[in-house]
Amino acid sequence: MRSKVIFIVGPTAIGKTKTAINLAKKIDGEIISCDSMQIYKGIPVLSCAPTPKNFKAIPHHLIAELSPKKEYSAAQFSKKATSLIKKIIKRKKTPIIVGGTGLYVKALIDGLFPSPKKDPVLRKKLELKAEKCTSLMLYTELKKIDPIASQNIHPNDTRRIIRALEIYYLTGIPMSIHKKNTKGIANTYDIQQTGLLMPREDLYEKINRRVDKMFKDGLLDEVKRLLELRLSMTAVLAIGIKEIRGYLNGEYTLKEAKELIKKHTRNYAKKQLTWFRRDKRIEWFSDGKSLISYCRFGK
RNA sequence: GCCGGGGUAGCUCAGUGGUAGAGCGCGGCCCUGAAAAGGCCGGCGUGGAGUGUUCGAUUCACUCCCCCGGCA
Questions:
Q1: Which of A133-142, A193-202, A238-247 is predicted least confidently?
Q2: Is residue A266's beta carbon less than 7 angstroms from any atom in nucleic acid strand B?
Q3: Residue A171 · residue A178 · CB < 8 Å
Q4: Which domains does chain A have, with CATH numbers?
C-alpha cells in the first residue's frame, strides 16, 4: 500500500497554518511548508510563519532556514520536500505539505523535468536582445524552435519566453518535449490534496485585519532590519518590503504603505485562487474542522 | 440668500449634439528553476431629477435637488 501524503492549500490568511497543526496533532504528522517566503530566516512577521511555540508541538520543515541573501526556487523546494517526505514516512509519520505557493505544489506533485538551472550569462544576453529588439522578436524565435510551448506563452511575457529559449539553448531540446518526461511524487505516494476556501469578501476582510496585526507585531522594525542586508532577488519580493521602503524614502505615509500592503496581499490571494481552482484534484473545505475530519475518516 | 465651481463606472476624473471613455479598484484567465514573480482579457453605467429646444440631449436652455469654495 502506498503511503499517504496530505496537502493543504489555499489563499493567504485563510487559516492553513492552524488547520495543519490541528491535523498533525490528530494523525501524528509532520509539517512541510510549501511557501516561497517562509523558508527565509528573520522574517517571521512578514512571511506569517508559524511561531516557535508551534514548532515545539509539531515538527516543521522548510521554515526559517535560509538566509534572505540567498535565492530560492520551485526546483529547490521540490528537491528538499521530496527527500523530507521520504524521511518522514520512514519514521512512520504522515507528511503534511502546507502552503500557498501554487507552483511549488505542482512541482512537487507532478514534478519538474530535469532541466538546466538558470544561466545568468545567457539570460542577460536574451534580456538585452528583448530590450533592444522587443520581445516579439524573441517570441518569433521561440515559435520557430518550439511552436507547442509558444502557444501558451503570450508575446509580451518576456520572462517566460526567455526561460523557454534558455532551456532549448542549453539542452538542444525544446521545452515542450522535456515537459512530457516529468515525474513527481504522485507516482510514488497516495496524494490527498485538500484546500480551504471562504467567500471572497470575508477573506479580504481577514487579510486587512491580519496586516493590521502584522504592524502591531513589529513589521516595521523587521523590514528595517531586513533592508540593511543585500537581499536576494527572490526574498526581496515579499509583499511589504517595497511598500515599507517607499514609506522610509518619504514617497508616502505609513498609513498609505499599510493600505498598499493590504491591497497587494488581496491581489496575491486572488492569483492564488486562480491557480488552485484549476487543479481538479483538490477537495475544498470551508472550515478547518471538516478538512481534518475528511483527512482522518474520508468522506 | 448672493456669486463662482461641480454632480458621468466602486473611487478619482476626461470627453462629445448621434445613448460614453482613462487610471485605480473589482472580476476572469495563462503559467516549469524569480511564482508573494511575470503576462493576457473584461466596462462592471438609469450620465443628480425633471421640463423644453432638436430628427436625435450625457452634451444646449430653464427649474429643482445635492456637494465644494467665496461673500453675507
A1: A133-142
A2: yes
A3: yes
A4: 1-111+190-299 (3.40.50.300), 120-180 (1.10.20.140)
